[in-house]
Design goal:
Blueprint lengths: L3 E4 L2 E4 L6 E2 L5 E8 L2 H11 L3 E8 L2 E10 L8 E6 L12 E9 L4 H10 L6 E5 L2 E7 L5 E6 L20 E9 L3 H9 L3 E6 L2 E5 L8 E6 L13 E8 L2 H13 L8 E2 L3 E7 L5 E9 L24 H8 L6
The structure holds zinc ion (ZN).
Length: about 325
């Protein structure tokens, strides 16, 4: 890649060519759609052993929960989030979406997980050797595409559930996007700082140097696949982490200078967000690591109470009485 010159938070190859962002840390969160809040809650907390770190509502549709699961504090790179729409129709898998969301587990723990998931009635369990890694594919309650991947991962897991430290999920490992054509998306990922690292069949693996542990993106190219139809079990968007609002503004400006249409910065209470649609059809978000999920709750009790965005606070009685099914923990 030659010699790099650092200027204004952007690294430019000294020989000209494209500028590359340096602010992206890896994934921040992945947000998906579900059909049932209770089932969703039980799957992530009781089957996968994650901590529910926030129970709130969709900013734009406060009659729908927004549930967040992750490590102890919901560290960026560990946070799986859901909008459960009661009785939502299932999505139809296809191109232009995130097909697989993968979590990192310790080396040697795949068989333990295979037995656990089977004993708990999880569907679609399949051991695979994939890009040199041992992974376990399985489905979420709405047919969601998931995998556990054995990895050397130094992140501390949440062990307050019933999965012990030798097996517990460390956070995201990667997401696998399924696209008709990867060209423009590959360019975007490179612009975001990712490098093509490996290739096998239809899959190209992109990774960040010095990422947050959740810094791998696989792109599967299936030129003939029909476009996905979003519904329960589909990923709605994937969010990438930046440290703070200053980094986010720099990323926003660079994306817009490159021709992307990016939303204004939106306050999501636990992070600030910007969104843009990628060439392959997947919705990307850039989210700040600040302020975090403990901004309005004691760390010992994260995710227990229903927290409402201030503009919806006056709806609490109505929402709890008419719309939001109580979740039994
Ligand atoms: Zn998001």
């Amino acid at each position: 890649m030659g010699v790099f010159v650092r200027m204004n938070n952007v690294i430019s190859p000294a020989n000209g060519g494209f500028a590359m962002l340096t602010q992206i840390n890896g994934l921040h969160h992945v947000t998906s759609l579900a059909s049932g809040a209770q089932e969703n809650n039980d799957f992530f907390t009781k089957v996968l052993g994650l901590r529910r770190v926030k129970k709130t509502v969709n900013f734009d549709a406060p009659e729908v929960y927004h549930l967040y699961y992750g490590d102890e504090l919901g560290t960026p790179g560990t946070v799986m989030t859901y909008f459960p729409f009661p009785n939502a129709r299932r999505g139809r898998p296809g191109a232009g979406e995130v097909a697989v969301t993968a979590f990192a587990i310790p080396k040697g723990s795949r068989d333990w997980w295979a037995d656990r998931l089977a004993s708990l009635g999880v569907k679609g369990i399949e051991k695979q050797d994939y890009l040199g890694e041992a992974r376990l594919r399985f489905q979420g309650p709405d047919g969601d595409g998931f995998a556990l991947v054995e990895a050397d991962d130094g992140r501390a897991p949440w062990t307050g559930g019933d999965v012990d430290v030798d097996h517990a999920i460390r956070g995201f490992h990667s997401t696998q996007m399924r696209l008709n054509d990867k060209g423009a998306t590959a360019e975007l990922l490179k612009f975001m700082g990712y490098e093509a690292q490996d290739k096998a069949g239809d899959i190209t693996r992109f990774a960040l140097q010095n990422g947050n542990g959740a810094h791998v993106i696989d792109v599967e190219t299936l030129p003939q696949a029909p476009m996905a139809a979003q519904g329960a079990g589909s990923v709605h968007h994937v969010a990438f982490s930046v440290d703070n609002r200053e980094a986010q503004l720099a990323v926003r400006k660079s994306l817009m200078d490159t021709g992307y249409q990016v939303t204004p910065v939106i306050d999501r209470d636990y992070f600030w967000a910007i969104y843009f649609r990628t060439p392959g059809g997947v919705l990307f978000e850039i989210a700040t690591n600040e302020p975090g999920f403990d901004r309005d709750e004691d760390r010992a009790h994260l995710g227990e109470a229903l927290k409402l965005p201030s503009q919806h606070a006056h709806l609490r009685d109505l929402l709890e009485r008419e719309y939001l099914e109580p979740i039994r923990d």
